User: Fold this.
Amino acid sequence: MEKEFQTFVWARIIGALVIAVVLIWGTMKLINLVPGSSSHSPEILYSSESHENTDSTQNALPYNAHSPSMGQTPKGADTHGAYGGTEAYKGPKGVAFVNALIAPIEYELNERFWGWRPNDAIKFTDNVNEYQLGLLEVTRRASTRLTENISRTGSTAVINKHLERAMNSFMIRADSLIIPSAESSYNEAIDNLNRYKKQLIKNEASFYTRTDNLIPLLKSFGELVGSCDEKLVKRTEDTGEPVSTFSADNYYYYAKGVASALVPILHAIENDFSQVLETRNGSEILHHAITSCHHAAEMKPWLFVTEGNLNGIIPNHRANMAASISHARFYLGLLVVTLST
Assistant:
């Protein structure tokens, strides 16, 4: 009788655990707690198929923002020039870059369920929040280098007014709730980037694909990825305390956001700076950097980030992310050296 009772109790406990796991998983999917669980992937924003649209401006857009989910590997992901690459678009130089700059942040603002989250008065999620902060930092750095370097002949040249406004709007704090809100500022930045893109299409603005313009951008990305790498591998905080599970979770998703935003921008560089890259033998190096960022972007823990022992059976997601981020850091640095010689 006692044995039967124990069997009954354990069956109930196991059943309850299974139901709890299913409910947690379903809830996380419902509120999109894990970045990339929606049908549109925020980090894979390139497609070789352009939109069918009768508007001339839309026809000039090279990439399709409707893309596979994060868990899927897009067709040709293991080949040179995946997600578009140098053959995806033959229009004016710079349009591919601007599209790649706009698409990730626009997705987070206007397409993701629950929208922009770092400035929510009550923060129900944190993974997406950190992911969006990482993505925003890439957007800021790319916008700054586009404004100050790539769109100008030199330091004395006039700054494009639309790019300057976009750069300043992106600098608004991510947690700014009102006057102005982060959402309104970033959408205003997107509008100004689109105005600059129209100027490029009409040949009324400049986009210079010189090596000395590309190097500062790559250096800035390398510094950002290096910062992510350091946070992913460290075992103690600056205070000497061990890295907590909550901090590890934040470091993981911030790095994931950085990698996700870098994928389309690096592909745009592959497209717009193709001549410089081929001349300096940098195309293959850039391809390795893209592959590393893609591997980081497509990582997706089932329920939550775990800090397992490196020799244990439970995964250490932060260490796994660090491997791909470290590779991206190396290849970005190598590309800077290659272009500088």
